Amino acid sequence: MSAMPCIFEADVDTIVAKPVPFASVYVTLTKQAHIVLVMQAAYWKSSHHRATLRLHWAELEHRGALEQAALREAALRGELEVAQAKIRDLQQRVFGRKSERSNGANESQASVSGRPRGHQRGKPGHGRKMSAHLPAHVQDIELASATCPQCGLGLSEFPGTEGSEVVELEVKAYRRVIRRHRYRPSCNCGCLPGIVTAPVPARLIERGHSSGCRYGPACCWTSFSTGAPAIGCCRTWPIPA
């Protein structure tokens, strides 16, 4: 078999640059060796092409996986913030300071100024406010037995009454004006004081403003168990007719 030059990837006629070493040296090889070299070159070219395609698809899959991971991370962060907010709310309800007049803005201002909340020492108080706009139901309370316990002689009524007010919540709110009648003994036994007054009706809270609410026990229990203000618990219940 006649020898022929082997040229790869370039044609000698297109080389315009300065000749490199061995540029004019020819290698003689057989036709079989030439075929093997050509087949190997084609195999490695096709292998490189397939590897390039696999790399491209791997990059696309990796990019899609990164986008899905970012979306999943954002969703998990949102769920974590919601869970932490619920935990803070429950901790505030169970362990935080409770007040029926609490306000987030007031609490933040108090925390910034460092001044304790509530009534400040040396400042005048607002006093106890009664709901004068509510209708009043007058209740007269008299002694069950207006007699002297020793001699049994009747007591004569003393002019005037001792009054107090309690806010009742039934069908509608009203002021229950309590007038306790006063008496003075008409005997000379000396076992009674100069003026005898009818007893004060029982209240849920001593000297309380709204102690006449008949929902008092259930309202206190709900406020204690849930941490919600007592007035909010009473507003959620239906008022019977």
Give an overview in words.
It is a single chain. With 241 residues, this protein is of the alpha+beta class. The protein folds into three domains: 1-93; 136-201, no CATH class; 214-241, no CATH class. The chain contains four helices and four strands, in the order ααββββαα. The protein has helices spanning 31-95, 104-113, 216-226, 230-235; strands spanning 136-141, 156-169, 173-184, 196-197. Strands 1, 2, 3 and 4 form a four-stranded mixed sheet that branches. The longest helix has 65 residues, at 31-95. It is rod-shaped and about 155 Å long. Residues 1-10 have low confidence and may be disordered.
Distance between the termini: 121 Å
| SS strand fraction | 5-15%
Radius of gyration: 49 Å
Q: Which class best fits the helix and strand makeup?
A: alpha+beta
List low-confidence stretches: 1-10
**How many structural units, i.e. domains?**
3
Q: Tell me the total number of β-strands.
A: 4
Q: What string, H for helix and E for strand, traces the elements in order?
A: HHEEEEHH
The tally of helices reads 4
* Average pLDDT level: 77
Report helical residue fraction: 25-40%
Q: What is the approximate shape?
A: rod-shaped
